[in-house]
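Researcher: Please translate sequence to structure tokens.
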Amino acid sequence: MTLRRFFDDVPDPERSLVVLNRTSPDPIQRMLGNLFENQPIPIEEVTLPDSGDDVVAVVEDGSIIAQSSLEELQDSILLINSDLFVTGTRDLSDISLPDALARLDDVPFRLRGYPASHSEKLLLILLSRYIERTAWERGVGTLRASFQDLSRIEDEVGTHRVYRTLDTTPVDVHVYGSPGWEPPPDSEITAHAGYSEDFLRSWFVVYTDPSGNEDIALLALEDEPNEWLGFWTYQRDRIEAINEYIMRTL
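Model: Translation complete:
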């Protein structure tokens, strides 16, 4: 039994993105299309006279369930690259998740990293940082995050800075991966190391909040080298099951 079991009941709601009254240049629309290329999220453009310009809406069952400006998507993901996160150029306080991305929850994505794709994997990176920011802002609860190789916490400047910041909060932080890094003596972070498939091929960031606020979890598995099957969810029962499995197994 592995973390793969949690993909069996992902609901995969039928959602689509609609760009309303686009006035932005064609390259921006192509970037949006490239981000969701080969994903179960169709994109279309619509002109509606009574709506604002350059709005990206999430549509489910014919109704808009979330929307963001195209500018928000440009600033958060379309016009950036992963180096901003790896090098720590973008602090936790700078991380924002547009509503139009947040409401693509429970959709299974298959995402490729560089060089196969310049943008797809950014969805997982952005969601990971958003969950970490949520834990940091609330300052309570438990955060569990996997890195495949724990040495990444030290080697990646941005990741090291994030977890050094989280270590100053009351959040109970647990990190997972193959051996390669141990928390310093003055750290409250708990490291879990191993060599099973769950340690070596999973990417998860799971935040549970005992105060009753919304939990959030991202789970992805590396099916092929640098190719990930993943989803994020706010469903409390699903998050509790994932969290319980990680706590008991890893």
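Researcher: Any highlights?
Model: Residues 3-249 form one domain.
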